[in-house]
């Protein structure tokens, strides 16, 4: 059986990012940039005030000085003249600093008054050159690369691109993923449940995972345990960037994925991995379409999806090939020794008394228990033949909420 890390490396090595497309700013959120974002303008375009107050020459801003106010500079309405000795301009946050001024007197440090010819202002606290002035280009300058290709865009990135005067961005196309659940025993949620039947949960959970990863899911009709049914359903995946099946991944009498799709051109790289939950896992290509065959067991299917499908979708979306982000933690309870398969225990995460991450494995780890998985917020990794560990020992954990699951 193939080790988990090698299986994932083979999957990622076989994938290439989708092509680029140009979309409007609101549609670019959570997409991966296919081309860098370069500033089209300088921000701020001129020196502006960071506060409400008065623009003046620092040389005139000694405590007790009385200056003549010759105009105003609200944001968006620059003062047209040049400020001279003994003069000040009323200015507001974001207003362009007038020519001749090099300091801002805060309005709370000023007392306005009336002079014989024009309004005046009394300086109650001396000013310093450059104080409360945001210089031209403080944030960025035209031609600066603000966002690099290969970055998944956040709401903050969208704001930056907009400020740099970009109404459109070039991003990688969201990967389209066809999801095929197989088995005579499964029915859609809400349908009558026949004797021996179970409700299909895998396809819907996987579709949600694809959405969370930035992909576009296409849930295909359930295929029965007949080769022609699987073949017909899989044909609907043409044009997608990946076909994900669930169920039928082993080699039992009713495990038909490989048998049904081999005549259609399925080339299998591997189909067994040394992990729990989820030993049967198919990776290959159906013609030009990458195929990931997950186990039918619900917990096994989701655990494998987190470890293999999630990084595969990141790669298709334009991100570098990388494993999920495991972090160090301490176990909140004793752990038994592990056997020869890499184990991913469903667990909850909490903060320890000194701020450390504490991860506590669920007492029951049966791979049929979706309720336990839904209540978990982490997968605790145990390497093959890991020894028993007492509570407080260091372990590796994948925090599901940190990757959006």
Q: What is the CATH first-level class name of the largest domain?
A: Alpha Beta
What is the CATH architecture assignment of the largest domain? 3-Layer(aba) Sandwich
Q: Give the percentage of residues in beta strands.
A: 25-35%
Q: Under CATH, the topology of the largest domain is which?
A: Molybdenum Cofactor Biosythetic Enzyme, Chain A
Q: What would you give as the CATH superfamily of the largest domain?
A: MoaB/Mog-like domain
Mean pLDDT: 93
* Total beta-strand segments: 26
Query: Distance between termini?
Result: 28 Å
Q: How does this structure look, described?
A:
Strands 7-4-6-5-9-8 form a six-stranded mixed β-sheet, with no helix packed on it. A six-stranded mixed β-sheet has the order 16-13-17-21-20-18. Helices cover 17% and strands 30% of the residues. The chain has seven helices and 26 strands. The chain starts with a helix and ends in a 6-residue tail after the last strand. The chain is an alpha/beta fold.
What's this entry about, in short?
The chain is of the alpha/beta class. It is built from 7 helices and 26 strands.
């Amino acid at each position: 059986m193939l080790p988990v890390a090698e299986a994932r490396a083979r999957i990622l090595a076989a994938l290439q990012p989708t092509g680029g497309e140009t979309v409007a700013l609101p549609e670019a959120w959570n997409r991966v940039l296919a081309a860098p974002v370069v500033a089209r303008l300088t921000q701020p375009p001129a020196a502006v005030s960071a506060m409400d107050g008065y623009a003046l020459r620092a040389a005139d801003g000694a405590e007790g000085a009385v200056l003549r106010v010759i105009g105003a500079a609200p944001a968006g309405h620059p003062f047209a003249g040049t400020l001279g000795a003994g003069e000040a301009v009323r200015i507001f946050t974001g207003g362009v600093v007038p020519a001749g001024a090099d300091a801002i007197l805060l309005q709370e440090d000023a007392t306005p008054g009336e002079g014989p010819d024009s309004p005046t202002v009394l300086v109650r606290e001396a000013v310093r050159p450059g104080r409360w002035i945001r210089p031209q280009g403080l944030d960025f300058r035209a031609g600066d690369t603000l966002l690099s290709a290969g970055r998944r865009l956040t709401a903050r990135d969208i704001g930056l691109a907009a400020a740099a005067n970009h109404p459109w961005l070039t991003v990688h196309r969201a990967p389209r993923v066809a999801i095929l659940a197989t088995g005579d025993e499964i029915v859609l949620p809400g349908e009558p449940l026949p004797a021996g039947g179970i409700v299909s949960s895998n396809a819907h959970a996987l579709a949600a995972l694809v959405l969370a990863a930035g992909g576009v899911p296409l849930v295909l009709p359930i295929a029965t345990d007949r080769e022609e049914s699987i073949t017909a359903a899989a044909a609907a995946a043409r044009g997608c960037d990946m076909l994900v099946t669930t169920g039928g991944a082993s080699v039992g009498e009713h495990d038909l994925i490989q048998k049904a799709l081999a005549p259609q051109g399925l080339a299998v790289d591997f189909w067994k991995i040394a992990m729990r939950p989820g030993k049967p896992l198919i990776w290959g290509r159906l013609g030009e379409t990458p195929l990931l065959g997950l186990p039918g067991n619900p917990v096994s299917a989701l655990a494998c999806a987190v470890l293999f499908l999630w990084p595969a979708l990141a790669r298709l979306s334009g991100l570098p090939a990388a494993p999920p982000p495991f972090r160090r933690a301490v176990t909140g309870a004793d752990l038994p020794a592990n056997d020869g398969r890499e184990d991913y225990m469903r667990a909850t995460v909490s903060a320890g008394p000194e701020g450390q991450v504490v991860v506590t494995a669920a007492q029951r780890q049966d791979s049929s228990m979706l309720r336990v998985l839904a209540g978990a917020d982490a997968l605790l990794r145990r390497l093959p033949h890991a020894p028993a560990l007492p509570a407080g020992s260091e372990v590796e954990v994948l925090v599901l909420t940190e990757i959006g699951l």
